[in-house]
Amino acid sequence: MNTPSTSSFRRFSPLASVLLASATLFGAAVLPLAAAAQSPAATPSAAPAAPTVRIRGTVVYVDQSKVVVKDRSGEVVSLARVADMPISEVYRIKLSDIKQGSFIGTAAMPQADGTQKALEVLVFPEAARGTGEGHFPWDLQPQSTMTNATVADLAAAPKNVRGGQQLKLSYKGGEKTLIVPPNVPVVTFKPATDALLVPGANVLINAQERNGTPTALRVLAGRNGFTPPM
């Protein structure tokens, strides 16, 4: 199976021009990459890091040197993989598991009243608190956003979202009010191995061009047909 061209790789991602620092929900999980991009040894003349892109799809084949996936657009792509590529299992938890003080990441749609309506909510493990903190564009749906923030307060959602939650989110430089409908997926993640990457497994891959080769930096996967909702 041929590795796709550079133009083919970029065609997968709606946000291929987003810079590394804001392109990935799990930025802390690829700290060696981020640290290299921000190293004091770097000079203004150094070539900028290639953007990180997100590939959502299903596993076709995995071995120690590559990951082959079918993108949600239907295109099959073969990616090299970094050494010790992190793999995480994303799994469901309950809406009630979101507590005051939880650090979350949420893809959401801006509403006319200034609130954000959640498309999904990820509760970060405590060790990942602070990952990618802030509010920025996201590519789950057109015009969607991502907010990584601390839950400062929570209450019942408005009556028109019966059974949901209303969260006040606080992050450095701002705050948002998030409405979480009761049917929105709430998830977290834990370390996993290649054993999770069976053919047909649903994945979200953070990838980057390295030396002209599309390369998988990190894989987030669901078990038994579960799709990571990010």
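That was protein one. Protein two is written in the same sequence-then-structure order:
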Amino acid sequence: MEIAVIIPSKNGITHLKECLPTVVKAARKAPFPVHITVVDDNSTDKTMEILSPLFPEVVFLRNSKKGASSARNWGVKNTPCDWICFLDNDVFLDEHFFNTVQKYLKQDVFCVACAGYTAYPKISGALEQNDGIKLLEWKRGFLRFTGNIYNKELPLQPEYLSWGVQGSYFFCNRNKFDRLCGFDEIFEPYMLEETDMVYRGLKRGWKIVYAPDTKPLHKCGGTIDSKKNKYTQFLSKRNRVLFVWKNITSKSLFISHIFWLLLRPNFKVLKSIWKFLPDIRNRRAIEIKEQMLTDKELLKQAKYFRKKCMSAMLQKTLKGEI
């Protein structure tokens, strides 16, 4: 087995100087070949020129296009692997990271979602979890995919499934990645590209396994501060609409989406996606043809698991375990 670590980076030299040594150290400890590739997305901070001599074990590529999706696709295309580990440039790994995740990398698995923690917890030295099992929810005309079930809330069972991944750290089966043609570059330059890809896999009946014992640390907003960056906020709104128009094939959910869109129209967003309509129609036709599970079936699965976790938490409370 070979793993390709793909790290897209735009003007991220400061983050890479801190985080890349932890990735290299974890790769050295791995029981299989791990190839690390940093894809420089046309940076102006001389990332490649400065860091390439400092990290001879890392391959540095320049993205031939612009954006996170194309950067990741370009990195995968140029790196041999059976599995792909996608990391952001502001993620720290512990030295046993790849050893820990090895048991989840099975042929029938599409993606492995990691349990993620903040790199700077409120209590020094503590593990403050900020990413767990991702859930799906339909709310106000859009699919919500940021809900988390954390480790302390999990019922005891041999395997945990997730309905999404945290794009900062997750694994993807190379064969299935290629079958999906990778990340859809319609979401360039960034935002929701990994959500779109894993949702397409879910609708094909492929499973995402959650790895509760992984512990990547995220600087959280080190690369993109979505709460302050107005362009990121615009892209979030635009790409959420693109996601629904491309992927949501349930008629009732789509009608709900249109209702909320008309109720709160965003003309700047609608104007920006008008040029994508022909591509969206083509992509939507493919998704309808390939889907094995419906939108409502996936929402029902996630809702059932949430209820199961709530029941497990109640039992733990009654027993005095928490």
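The mean pLDDT is 94. Keep this in mind for the problem set.
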